[in-house]
């Protein structure tokens, strides 16, 4: 199969409007850049009240300023998700100024490459904290408010990587595989309270980080050749799926994995 390489990002997507998202209190982790920034823009565009957590101060402030004219301008909170005390303080602050969180999007992650012989116990613990642990504790922070209101949505982010067994990503893939188990467990435990929990599994998304570090023209051609669709997945494509799953249109969707990978997995 011959694949053409797209040299320029696609134009911003015009998202469907979900009236049920207007006014919803949404927390997005890792919202300052990449997929996270697309999520912030998409939910702000729905009239949701968005709070996004990140350590990338400059990019996050720039995004916050760019969306100052949104119906409800998003709010950036600096938070290192490795610091569980800081994480708890951030959610407590959101609760004081806005009330119970309606939608949590556990997006933050880091796909650092590594070789098996270089992994130390400390590095293992740090990678699990970066990619897995905070998803559980963010969910723990929002569920009391969701239980009180009798509804809520938690969207965890997995990865195509472990489904494909990609090289030099064992710890990242371990965490991302665990997130699918986390999603099923939370969906079962929280469903009785009207809380829906799903997992979004992006494919090879064309973010600035990926294009800078990993996606050479040769790698991009390889990805396109492996997909069913001869088009790169963009951050807005992931945001479109998140909007649907967070909305009332997905009211009976819970405990499942949803791929947005242009048909890469299983192709």
Helix content: 40-55%
Radius of gyration, taken over Cα atoms and rounded to an integer in Å: 18 Å
The main pleated sheet reads as: 7 strands, parallel
Strand content: 5-15%
Distance between the termini: 12 Å
- Using the alpha-carbon principal axes, give the shape: globular
Q: What is the total tally of β strands?
A: 7
Strand order of the largest sheet: 3-2-1-4-5-6-7
Low-confidence stretches: 1-9
| Whole-number mean pLDDT | 92
The arrangement of helices and strands along the chain is EHEHEHEHEHHEHHHE
Question: What is the SS-derived class?
Answer: alpha/beta
Individual helix count: 9
Describe the structure.
This protein is an alpha/beta fold and about 270 residues long. The chain is built from nine helices and seven strands. It has helices at about 35-45, 55-65, 85-100, 120-150, 160-165, 170-190, 210-215, 215-225, 235-245; strands spanning about 25-30, 50-55, 75-80, 105, 150-155, 195-200, 255-260. The chain has a seven-stranded parallel sheet with strand order 3-2-1-4-5-6-7, sandwiched between helices. Residues about 1-10 have low confidence and may be disordered.
Summarize this, please?
With 267 residues, the chain is of the alpha/beta class.
Short key terms for the protein model shown above:
267 residues, 7 strands, 9 helices, seven-stranded parallel sheet, 14% strand, disordered N terminus, alpha/beta
């Amino acid at each position: 199969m011959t694949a053409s390489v797209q040299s320029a990002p696609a134009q911003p997507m015009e998202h469907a409007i979900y009236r049920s998202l207007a006014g919803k209190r949404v927390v997005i982790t890792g919202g300052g850049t990449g997929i996270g920034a697309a999520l912030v823009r998409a939910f702000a565009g729905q009239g949701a009240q968005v709070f996004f957590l990140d350590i990338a101060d400059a990019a996050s402030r720039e995004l916050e300023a760019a969306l100052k004219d949104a119906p409800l301008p998003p709010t950036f909170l600096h938070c290192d998700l490795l610091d569980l005390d800081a994480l708890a303080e951030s959610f407590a602050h959101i609760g004081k100024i806005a009330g119970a969180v309606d939608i949590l999007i556990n997006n933050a992650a880091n796909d650092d490459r590594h070789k098996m012989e270089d992994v130390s116990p400390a590095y293992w613990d740090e990678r699990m904290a970066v990619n897995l642990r905070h998803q559980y504790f963010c969910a723990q922070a929002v569920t009391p408010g969701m239980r009180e209101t009798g509804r809520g949505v938690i969207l965890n982010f997995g990865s195509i990587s472990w489904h494909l067994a990609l090289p030099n990503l064992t710890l990242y893939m371990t965490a991302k595989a665990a997130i699918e188990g986390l999603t099923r467990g939370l969906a079962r435990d929280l469903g009785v309270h009207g809380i829906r929990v799903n997992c979004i599994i992006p494919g090879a998304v064309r973010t600035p980080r990926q294009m800078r570090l990993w996606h050479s023209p040769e790698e991009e051609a390889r990805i396109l050749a492996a997909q069913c669709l001869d088009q790169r997945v963009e951050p807005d494509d992931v945001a479109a799926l998140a909007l649907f799953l967070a909305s009332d249109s997905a009211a009976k969707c819970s405990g499942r994995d949803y791929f947005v990978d242009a048909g890469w997995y299983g192709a």
